[in-house]
Amino acid sequence: MDPARTHKKVPVAELNRSACLGPDGAVAQVTRCLKMISGRWKLPILFRLYADGMQRSSLLLRDIPDISQKMLTQHLRELEADGLIRRTDFGEKPPRVEYRLTDRGEGLMPVLLSARQFSEDYDQLA
């Protein structure tokens, strides 16, 4: 086999390539996951919520250097829309809102921690 044609090494039966490349295949699912976490501030937000369990937006602003209120709000809304975090508004004056990971967000964290470990291991090999 030509070494440049590595895509043929994917362990999928020749007649069932849609399991990998189809609209609901592995590539589409991983791409969907990557879109959920893409954005400069989404990973820092997820890791802060994972570390502390619950955060108010003022604490996230303080703990994540250089993030603006606008970008924090935008990314929190996107993460909430994707079902990775839950927003709890207590309906108080002054407003009190807390954010925490959902079960789906908790399920994503082992994947992100594995990616971190992969990166650390990769650096040691380089």
TrEMBL record:
Pfam families (UniProt xref): HxlR
Keywords: DNA-binding, Transcription, Transcription regulation
Keyword Lipid biosynthesis: no
Classification via InterPro entries: HTH_HxlR (IPR002577), WH-like_DNA-bd_sf (IPR036388), WH_DNA-bd_sf (IPR036390)
PROSITE patterns: HTH_HXLR (PS51118)
GO function terms (MF aspect): DNA binding
Signal peptide: none
Residue intervals of the HTH hxlR-type domain: 20-126
The protein's name in its UniProt record: Transcriptional regulator
